[in-house]
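Hi V.,

Quick status before I head out on leave. The structure for the redesign project is tokenized and pasted below; the design run finished overnight.
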């Protein structure tokens, strides 16, 4: 039977499932489970979860910069290994960017470490599909992290973003 994919805004009780996706992704900095519950609750308008047959298959957490309503910061995104390669990350970003809360957003910023090639690829494809630029700059260097023991986190900036639907074919 074809899997049923649905994407929706998060709720507090999605926190533990998104925490588990972050842990299992093997690519993300795992925050406290409390952090995911809080994000899913207080930032639910810009956090989305993808479910397949009711099971969490992917997520995106983000927030609009408190001092700049035109700037969206994507904190984390990940798709469960068994569901990768189906365009779920692109769909999550599409739902996010087309959401009511992002009506004034003109730029998307995020950091992606060199080891997270999947997220880098998703963002690159997105910039091509909506016909806007993707600018990579310094972001957070390893020196910012305790004992410099973290990969560099270059900043990726997409925009200006036009309000057009993103072809997902
Ligand atoms: C887009 C994305 O998932 N970035 C991850 C940033 C950082 N390494 C983290 O895991 O929070």
């Amino acid at each position: 039977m074809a899997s049923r994919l649905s994407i929706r805004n998060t709720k507090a009780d999605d926190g533990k499932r998104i925490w588990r996706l972050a842990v299992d992704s093997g690519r993300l900095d795992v925050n406290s489970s409390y952090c995911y519950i809080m994000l899913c609750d207080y930032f639910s308008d810009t956090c989305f979860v993808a479910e397949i047959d009711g099971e969490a298959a992917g997520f995106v957490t983000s927030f609009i910069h408190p001092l700049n309503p035109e700037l969206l910061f994507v904190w984390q995104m990940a798709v469960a290994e068994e569901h990768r390669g189906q365009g779920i990350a692109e769909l999550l970003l599409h739902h996010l960017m087309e959401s009511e809360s992002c009506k004034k957003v003109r730029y998307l910023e995020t950091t992606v470490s060199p080891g997270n090639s999947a997220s880098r690829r998703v963002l690159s494809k997105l910039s091509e599909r909506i016909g806007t630029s993707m600018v990579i700059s310094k972001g957070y260097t390893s020196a910012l992290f305790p004992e410099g023991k973290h990969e560099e986190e270059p900043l990726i900036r997409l925009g200006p973003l036009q309000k057009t639907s993103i072809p997902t074919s």
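Above is the designed sequence. The helical segments are 15-25, 33-42, 88-97, 117-129.

G. will cover questions while I'm gone.

Best,
W.
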